Amino acid sequence: MVTQLIREGKVVRSFLGISGQTVPLPVRVVRYFQLGHKSGVQVVDVAPNSPAHRADLKEGDVIISLDGEPVTSVDDIHRRLTREAIGKSKGVVLLRGWTARLEKSIIPAESPG
Hints:
With 113 residues, the protein is of the alpha+beta class. It contains 4 helices and 8 strands, in the order αββαβαββαβββ.
């Protein structure tokens, strides 16, 4: 990242177009879906015309996996949204309404800022 900043004057990252917060997963949900972790990222907002919007993510969804790796915090998502992720389809696993486990594909875009 430092070399990218020096060479280009900015750091290019990818983004999904969500605002999220780390939330604990209810014990019953962890057991039912046989999850190996006890927290995820709840979607608070989905930006219009964003990668998340196109992938049909909804406010209230809880992301538990991105690109085959567990998501336990917002930091987990940020770590995976590198420049290399731009335009490459990623699998996202989420819980909707705590009762449905959904698998979707999302294609991160270049961060506008």
